[in-house]
Specification:
Layout lengths: L1 E7 L2 E9 L8 E8 L8 H8 L9 H4 L6 H12 L5 H6 L18 H7 L1 H14 L8 H7 L5 H28 L5 H18 L7 H12 L1
Antiparallel strand pairs: 1-2, 2-3
């Protein structure tokens, strides 16, 4: 049970968050009890800190909470960060399938680490995207690399996040297409789809950077 004591209108109010055991679904409700104690004045920050759950900070927090990211890509990459995609290795551990083979290369077992970017196919796609965006994208653990990437502008980091999440989303889509229909895009086709996503998203974002190098880079991405 969590308790917060605040001052409202000169009176002290104790707000208690209580689990109701009489309900089948343990619904939360709040009980307000008037008390008379000397406490500090209530602030919105104090109330927010009380309401939010306690937990550890996660490294993918700045990667996901990027307003420039396409929402559907954010959700998929959140699953990637949690390693919750239904890859072949997870399905086999669940007992749903008996074999495990990558649907993109057909050479190794499929896992999150293999799909992003240990697979030969995904490496080729990554290299094409690197050549297009002229940015030193990582070969593995892109979230950690992005967070630790220093000496660059905030706009550049946001755009690179858009590029990487679009690439990961298109790879997963291509993987599902191979699994369900037996079709695999050529790497240059997948790269063109990533370009389309990025250009469309940048056209919707308000880029106010005064850095001439960033503006020149954005213009190159939208016209290349």
């Amino acid at each position: 049970m969590k308790t917060l004591v605040v001052t409202i209108g000169g009176s002290c109010v104790k707000i208690m968050q209580i689990h109701n055991p009489s309900k089948k679904a343990e619904l939360l409700y709040f009980s307000m009890i008037l008390i008379h104690e000397e406490v500090e004045h209530y602030t919105l920050k104090q109330g927010y800190q009380w309401l939010k759950p306690d937990g550890d900070k996660v490294r993918w927090y700045p990667w996901m909470l990027n307003s420039w990211i396409i929402p559907r890509h954010t959700f998929l990459c959140w699953l990637v960060a949690q390693q919750r995609l239904l890859t072949q290795d997870r399905l086999r551990r669940m007992g749903i399938i008996q074999h495990n083979c990558c649907f993109l290369c057909g050479l190794e077992e499929e896992s999150h680490e293999h799909l992003f970017f240990g697979c030969i196919y995904s490496k080729m796609c990554l290299q094409l995207v690197k050549d297009w965006c002229m940015c030193p994208l990582p070969d593995a653990d892109c979230i950690k690399w992005w967070i630790e990437w220093r000496h660059t502008s905030a706009y550049r980091k946001k755009i690179v996040a858009v590029i990487m999440e679009s690439l990961m989303s298109q790879l997963w889509h291509c993987r599902n297409l191979s699994r369900l229909d037996g079709l695999i895009w050529r790497p240059n086709v997948l790269c063109s789809k990533v370009k389309h996503d990025v250009v469309m998203r940048l056209g919707q974002c308000d880029i106010k950077s005064r850095n001439s190098r960033v503006i020149g880079w954005v213009n190159y991405l939208t016209t290349a």
